Here is the input.
Amino acid sequence: MEIRKLRISDYPKIIEIWSRAGLPFKPNGRDSKLAISKEIKAHPDFFLGAFEDGRLIGTVVLSCDLRKGWINRLAVEVSHRNRGVAQALISESERVLREQGVRIFCGLVESSNTASQKLFEKCGYSKIAA
Here is the structure.
């Protein structure tokens, strides 16, 4: 498995993964190809993908306010779950955020997504209700 920066050419597959994972997204708004393209250009390190044999199998999108970093849109293809892909994406996300000077990490997880909540807890995160 290889983790690398996502490119706008990965957009169709990103949307497929988000859709299959049940992540909410706005294809006609903030998640349109144009909007994502602008974000990738502005913050290329904040869009990461896990690839196996050249095929995108997982995604994560980062954001930060220079004090706190957010791990968003963590999604892995169903066929590749429970194989360490998400943990690797979290670890790489933390590394990227550390390079930005960020020392507080947060995972944005829907309250109904117990699998992701357990994963973040396994990675050392504490659950805080919003």
